[in-house]
Amino acid sequence: MTIAIERIEAAAYEIMCRAAIDIPPDYRRGIAEMRARETGKLARFVLHAMAENWEAASADRRPMCADTGLPRYYVKVGNEARVETGFVGVERVLRQATARATRDVPLRPNRVHPLWRTEHGNNVGINAPEIDWSFEPGADWVDITTVHKGGLFGTDYRMLFPGDGVDGIKRFVLDGLIAFGKRGLACQPAILGIGLGGSKDTCMQLGKQAACLRIVGDRHPDPGIAALELELQALGNAIGMGAMGFVGSSMVVDCHIEVGHTHTGGMPVSMHTFCLASRRATARIHADGAVEYRSDPQWFTPYLRRETTEWETRTRT
């Protein structure tokens, strides 16, 4: 069956509206648990105010933060999926949905030309919104995830060497979190995404996807990486800074790490913070036109993390 392009556009518009307003339940639970543990008076006050702002935004159907970030899409295509007008048509309606949502929600029109500062007032322009693609074998659906992430600060990159090891990664992450907190370069508490390996551009992509496309509480299937995620989360919450940089222990809601095989001579690492307005929403459009909405992107499938030349669909141990 062929998916009607109108179903794609309607779903993309709907998740644009949801992501702008409704904070995902996994992040809300993470903040509630963090608030129960926080002993810093001002940091605890900020966490309480965050929850109140979320409730008000949902009730009023308006964004909880004036800066609605840079809307972007992650599209996972089932190998058996067929879409009316093809995937050029998908790109076209994703841009249209962004422009409509900017007007209707409304979203702040943040996109400008980097040199001339000209803009169209709809968050659409050259290479905007960004659309990342991945594929899934044996499926006839299309998953569309939108993420509204700030595009200014809360990100860092460093080329480490293999000899720096895990201790070098820890040092880089702690240095970054302290700098972010002192200089107000991130809105804590944040979901921290770490990219390890790959080429420089892949490393940055992995870190952003780790921050934005995994839910709070999700652990990497590699036990060693999962243990490092928890260790970095604990270290981030032990530096003495809490929500919005106040004294406390609520810097990192969760830490997610994604890796890619890299050059033998290096160990690139990136870090990204998905701020207190963690905005994401996903729609799955089935071959029969039915649409399911959820807050877990389910982006990192076993197929996406595959290591071998040939993909085997059977369960691997």
Q: Which structural class best describes the helix and strand composition? A: alpha+beta
Strand content: 15-25%
Distance between the ends: 34 Å
Outline, from the CA principal axes?
Answer: globular
List the helices and strands and how they pair.
Blueprint: H1 5-21, H2 25-37, H3 41-60, E1 70-78, H4 86-104, E2 131-136, E3 142-149, E4 155-160, H5 165-183, E5 190-197, H6 200-212, H7 223-236, E6 252-260, E7 267-274, E8 279-285, E9 291-294
Parallel strand pairs: 1-2, 5-6
Antiparallel strand pairs: 1-3, 3-8, 4-7, 5-7, 8-9
Keywords: 4Fe-4S, Iron, Iron-sulfur, Lyase, Metal-binding
Protein name: Fumarate hydratase
Domain Fe-S hydro-lyase tartrate dehydratase alpha-type catalytic: 11-283
Short précis:
The protein is 36% helix and 21% strand. It has helices spanning 5-21, 25-37, 41-60, 86-104, 165-183, 200-212, 223-236, and strands spanning 70-78, 131-136, 142-149, 155-160, 190-197, 252-260, 267-274, 279-285, 291-294. It holds the Pfam family Fumerase.
Report what the structure shows.
The chain has two domains: 117 residues, 60s Ribosomal Protein L30, Chain: A (2-Layer Sandwich), CATH 3.30.1330; 124 residues, no CATH class. The protein is built from seven helices and nine strands; from the N terminus they run αααβαβββαβααββββ. It is 36% helix and 21% strand. The mean pLDDT is 94. The strands form two sheets. The protein has a five-stranded mixed beta sheet, covered by helices on one side. It has 317 residues and is α+β, with helices and mostly antiparallel strands. The two termini are 34 Å apart.
